[in-house]
Amino acid sequence: MSGSIRAVIDTNALQHNLSVVRARAGSARVMAVVKANAYGHGLLPTALALQAADAFGVARLEEGVALRAGGITQPIVLLEGVFGAEQLEEAARQRLQLVVHDVSQIELLECSGGAQRFVLWVKIDTGMNRLGFPPGESAAVLERLRRLSPAPSELRLLTHLSCANERDDAVTRAQVQRFRDATRSLPYAVSIANSAGLFGAVALGCDWVRPGIALYGASPFDDCIAADLGLEPVMRLESSVIAVRRVARGERVGYGGAWVAKRDSAIAVIAAGYGDGLHRSLGGGAPVLIDGRRAPLAGRVSMDMMAVDVSELAGVRVGTPVLLWGPGLAVEEVARNAGTIPYELLCAVSQRVRLVVNRA
Ligand SMILES: *Cc1c(COP(=O)(O)O)cnc(C)c1O
Known about the structure:
By secondary structure, this protein is of the alpha/beta class. It contains 11 helices and 18 strands.
């Protein structure tokens, strides 16, 4: 459809990325992280395409409920656990596994009298200082959970890396060491790696990995793009030209007249703006692909459209296809131009962007 923006999701690429992750993970099992609407890729279609994963990770109870309603039968882990008796009951009904990171969640379980319904993942804080128990408390926490009556069906342990994305291997090594020290003598499965941990240089040695961004074909690192890791971009964010106009040298384009024509120019207006999730911080000069050819943004992104200098390109007209990111224009490059990371751009793709799932 001309004049409308869409996100085309390549399920083959999702499956390819899962196989790359698996090869990287060795014998570890893979929990595919599909929180935040699968990083903007559509929660259910993504999970359906990734049914070969060993489990799914979500951030919110509603996401777990939606996966079950959509027919997903794999284990689903609530990465932040539950916050109240009602949520706990719903999680039990939906057969969700729970992360336990705070004493209030232990108290909830103690009051519920039904811990046998849950696989519990105890989160150890090894330096992120966000969620989790200090390593020194882990033994006492586990003891308290073991004493739940009836006992939980299984206990597992996880931690989260704070600096793997920055490739700060000294910090990652220290976190892994702290986690090992706290869990070494325990008979439980352990989980460490996000995508950066998985593709980073530090050996993790764990039973479960938890990749998110890598599955979507974007790099967790600033210094490389997904292709360098053998991954394929999953989302193609595409739109089209809705107007082409000539502007004379010295004329200005867009809000604030931020872009000034240095010569007589051709400007293409694209149906894509911050109302779709394109960041307004995308600088003038940031490229888009017009019919496969690079052209720079002219001026500011507005809510519904953006202007592109197509003076160098022949044959641009209303309806000409435009790629905002995807194969040929890495979301990592777009993120850098917007002063952010691919995670934020992908998650920001808004409700009005039509998701089109390309099934194999
Ligand atoms: C989001 C999240 C992940 C996935 O991180 P990526 O960097 O996208 O691979 C893994 N574990 C936890 C606990 C998370 O919250």
